[in-house]
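User: Please fill in residues for this 611-position structure.
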């Protein structure tokens, strides 16, 4: 959601903050601002709109200093406006904040009665007032911050400057991501890794309840008990260049074309195809032992990651013969699921910071289940909380609409399925070997799909005027229909729905007319004839058809399709991997041709870190 960056060192801080905030634009935001410790005290520059506007403000009214904090805001309390932009100040205190303070109205009411004046409608401004009140009691800064923050309920990632303390910034994290970045004679703090990569690849993720005092030479961290702790640093393998566009018009397009490498990296070193063996060296022994005897599997996630979970459910039941359920995290956490000590809960999140997914994981552990995270970000909250983690190795994903993270999540679930089938002896060694051989050929087949890019762009042009899109499929490709529809609506703002093809007659067929486009996922598998009959129903209602299929049924599809997108043929279980990139490109080109902001679609954020 919102983005935070802070710096202290020997360099001019304003440019560093601006560059760091630009690296966090993918999180979604409606305003931006910085606070710099100058020779005359803390100076704030902020405003509604894009970072470019903040740059103009700084150009007209520059600030100079080597300590500062910056923020991009995604509105939760108060409309997007100059006054509601972060940072917020009260007395000696200036703060930036990610998260939601659940008791802010109660606190604000009490502060107003004491004569405190508020400039904004935000919950964040309460933080500055409360800490400033503690300072006025005579407390030292550390005690004032800790005592003040104890009064706040809800999610917090806070970075603080205090007037008169020109060599230190303070940070605190509770249920909202925050990291420290370590350099030579300079240190940083940020809500996400890309903001610090230009300066350091050595980071430490804060744990819940961590308080930090950060100077140019040292980062002192205290845990929730007040004890100073040493967190083990993590070396990030991403480079700053990996987080740049690399000549592509949008990050999303770049990340679509990175998928062959991303999937290959995810698979690398985790299997021996010739032996039909998956080797998850990163799994603790106790988790491996549990996997062998788990009676059921529950997969939970949100959005795109949930669609990956649906693919996993299909595979696990089909090949490993284990009862498996996939459920949206925001629903799971508010009911009483059959999850117990015999359940393995697979929790999927690209960022590892999705609030509902973290809550679902915590609930699963409370019920006695073992939890296995499928995650992209090393050191994220989910990766630290779960009993074990399988990283997707996708590299930084900047575009808000997830692409390569989705395919790498599916790749991990394929490996997990083969691993389970080996442990349970549900398919033979020869069958596993054949599956893994086909799976390791997938990166090349994804490349073949991506070579269809120019043709897919022309297909997009042919359907720009459609009033509604339906994506239909059967079997393992039904989740891909859901994902294709989600991608289109996310970035183009067109109405799109995903349906099991057999459900057309149970409602959706009522709205089919010449203004509708049906995207039919119809590769040449055992369900081809049934799905083709659904296309016949669509054509009879004069709706337009885009068929996504294989070359061996191209001539037949031409008789019932306005456009055809051909993808490589592979085994049925692996079809999602070759179909998905085609749907991503279709959504991208429709959005781009319509002039949409592809990387930062309206109202959306990369990581949904609040409920």
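Assistant: Residues filled in for all 611 positions:
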């Amino acid at each position: 959601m919102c983005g935070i960056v802070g710096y202290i060192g020997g360099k001019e801080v304003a440019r560093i903050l601006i560059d760091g905030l630009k690296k966090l634009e993918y999180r979604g935001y409606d305003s931006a601002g910085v606070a710099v410790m100058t020779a005359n005290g803390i100076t704030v520059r902020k405003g509604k709109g894009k970072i470019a506007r903040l740059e103009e403000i700084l150009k007209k009214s520059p600030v100079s200093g080597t300590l500062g904090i910056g923020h991009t805001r995604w509105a939760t309390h108060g409309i997007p406006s100059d006054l509601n932009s972060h940072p917020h100040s009260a007395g000696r205190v200036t703060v930036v904040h990610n998260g939601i303070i659940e008791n802010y109205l109660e606190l604000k009411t009490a502060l107003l009665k004491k004569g405190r004046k508020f400039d904004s409608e935000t919950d964040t401004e309460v933080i500055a007032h409360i800490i400033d009140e503690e300072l006025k009691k005579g407390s030292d800064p550390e005690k004032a911050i800790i005592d003040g923050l104890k009064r706040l309920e809800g999610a917090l990632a806070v970075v603080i400057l205090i007037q008169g303390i020109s060599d230190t910034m303070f940070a605190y994290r509770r249920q909202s991501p925050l990291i420290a970045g370590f350099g030579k004679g300079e240190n940083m703090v940020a809500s996400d890794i890309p903001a610090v990569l230009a300066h350091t690849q050595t980071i430490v993720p804060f744990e819940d309840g961590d308080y930090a005092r950060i100077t140019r030479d040292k980062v002192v961290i205290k845990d929730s008990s007040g004890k100073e702790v040493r967190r083990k640093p993590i070396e990030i393998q991403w480079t700053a260049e990996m987080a740049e566009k690399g000549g592509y018009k949008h990050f999303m397009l770049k990340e679509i074309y990175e998928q062959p490498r991303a999937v290959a990296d995810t698979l690398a070193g985790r299997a021996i195809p010739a032996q039909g063996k998956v080797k998850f060296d990163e799994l603790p022994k106790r988790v491996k032992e549990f996997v062998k005897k788990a009676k059921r599997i529950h997969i939970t996630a949100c959005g795109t990651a949930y669609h990956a979970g649906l693919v996993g459910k299909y595979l696990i039941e089909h090949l490993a013969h284990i009862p498996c359920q996939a459920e949206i995290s925001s629903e799971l956490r508010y009911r009483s699921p059959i999850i117990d000590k015999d359940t393995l809960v697979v929790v999927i999140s690209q960022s590892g910071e999705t609030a509902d997914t973290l809550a679902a994981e915590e609930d699963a552990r409370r019920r006695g289940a073992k939890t296995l995270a499928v995650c992209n970000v090393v050191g994220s909250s989910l990766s630290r909380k779960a009993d074990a983690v399988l990283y997707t190795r996708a590299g930084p994903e900047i575009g808000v609409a997830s692409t390569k993270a989705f395919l790498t999540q599916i790749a991990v679930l394929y490996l997990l399925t083969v691993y389970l089938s080996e442990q349970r002896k549900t398919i033979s060694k020869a069958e596993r070997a054949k599956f893994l051989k086909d799976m390791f050929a997938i990166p090349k087949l994804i490349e073949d799909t991506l070579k269809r890019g120019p043709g897919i762009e022309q297909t997009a042009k042919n359907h720009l005027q459609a009033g509604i899109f339906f994506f239909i499929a059967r079997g393992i490709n039904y989740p891909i229909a859901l994902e294709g529809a989600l991608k289109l609506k996310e970035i183009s703002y067109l109405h799109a729905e995903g349906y099991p093809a057999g459900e057309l007659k149970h409602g959706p067929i009522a709205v089919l007319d010449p203004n509708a486009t049906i995207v039919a996922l119809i590769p040449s598998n055992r369900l081809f004839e049934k799905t083709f009959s659904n296309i016949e129903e669509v054509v009879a209602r004069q709706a337009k058809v885009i068929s996504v299929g294989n070359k061996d049924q191209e001539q037949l599809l031409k008789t019932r399709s306005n456009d055809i997108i051909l993808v490589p043929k592979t085994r049925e279980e692996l079809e999602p991997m070759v179909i998905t990139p085609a749907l991503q490109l279709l959504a991208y080109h429709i959005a781009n041709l319509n002039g949409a902001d592809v990387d930062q679609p309206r109202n959306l954020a990369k990581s949904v870190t609040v409920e």
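For context: The chain has three domains: 3-243, 251-440, 449-593.
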